[in-house]
Design a protein that fits this description.
Helix content is 75%, strand content 1%. By secondary structure, the chain is mainly alpha-helical. The protein has two domains: 44 residues; 255 residues, MetI-like (MetI-like fold, Orthogonal Bundle), CATH 1.10.3720.
Length: 312
């Protein structure tokens, strides 16, 4: 019978040094990966600024912040593009948030287990659907129906873009919000039901507030995706840089910042004024996305701090 090998003091010391070195290496790699995200964001912003800041010196601010976008004749008004992006994004948010939250509540709290196992994978598949496919469906099916239903000159409007962007944002909202609702301890629900609350009261006053941070994160991620979407809005919004002056603009063609960059960057001369203005639009889009993410992080942090104060 062979005797088991027992390492000596020197071997144990060498193993401890090796394990410590591996741990230090893994920690350094993980930190480098975490910091790399910040570095990449800074590099992207620097690249956009290096190309876009020249537009401020080449084009007067009165022209940049005017209501007409027609680069061929030297009109570089970006207000219609900003207004179109905000109009479509707000419309998509109003469409996606109620449907997304209702779907997440149904999957997490109401649907039977077999239905949950069917719906969740389907929604996750929809999240990976190419936006160009939705844009094609919008041109073929949605836009003609809107034109007939609302008696419009054309169905390629901001409303069509809002609906399709809402469909793009819904899977993200549902997936994140459902995970947040599902992570709420079962004891919360049992305690509410034990004191006489109905199922609906438990969902609205206990489960949903307890999962508020995750739900807000899902909503903001959905809004962020809607802001940065390109192909769908370029295909179904009509691409008309019209100034948004009233709520009726939702029924008219519009153009977003992302669609403008995608449509014109490939044909513009490098180093021209038009080229620099397109990069300036990218800077503005970057800042809008950054502000949305900062607001989302601040809201989540505030909710977590409030929950900690309540529990303490």
């Amino acid at each position: 019978m062979d005797t088991p090998f027992i390492p000596g003091p020197q071997q144990r010391k060498a193993q401890a040094i090796f394990s410590q070195a591996i741990e230090i290496l893994i920690t350094a790699v993980v930190k480098a990966m975490g910091y790399s995200a910040i570095v990449f964001v800074i590099m992207i912003f620097y690249f956009l600024m290096s190309e876009g800041i020249a537009a401020v010196g080449e084009v007067p601010l009165s022209v940049l912040f005017s209501a007409r976008w027609y680069p061929i004749e030297g009109y570089y008004g970006i207000l219609p593009l900003i207004g179109g992006s905000l109009l479509v994004t707000v419309g998509a948010t109003l469409f996606a948030v109620p449907i997304g939250l209702a779907t997440a509540i149904y999957i997490s709290e109401i649907a039977p287990r077999w239905m949950r196992e069917v719906l969740k994978p389907i929604i996750e598949i929809l999240a990976g659907l190419p936006s160009v496919v939705l844009g094609f469906i919008g041109i073929i099916a949605l836009a003609p129906q809107l034109r007939v239903l609302l008696d419009l000159p054309t169905g390629l409007t901001a409303l069509a873009g809002s609906i399709l962007l809402g469909l793009i944002a819904i899977p993200t909202i549902v997936s994140v919000a459902e995970d947040a609702l599902d992570s709420v301890p079962r004891s919360y629900r049992d305690a509410a039901l034990a004191i006489g609350a109905t199922r609906w009261q438990t969902i609205m006053r206990v489960t949903l507030p307890a999962a508020r941070s995750g739900v807000l994160t899902g909503v903001m991620l959905g809004v962020g995706r809607a802001i940065g979407e390109t192909m769908t809005v370029m295909m179904v919004t009509g691409n008309a840089p019209v100034m948004v002056r009233s709520l009726s603009a939702i029924l008219m063609p519009t153009r977003t910042m992302t669609a403008t960059i995608a449509a014109e960057m490939g044909e513009v001369a490098k180093g021209s004024v038009h080229y620099h203005v397109l990069f300036l639009i990218g800077v503005i889009l970057f800042l809008i996305s950054l502000i949305v993410n900062i607001i989302a992080s601040a809201m989540v942090f505030r909710v977590k701090k409030r929950a900690e104060r309540i529990l303490s």
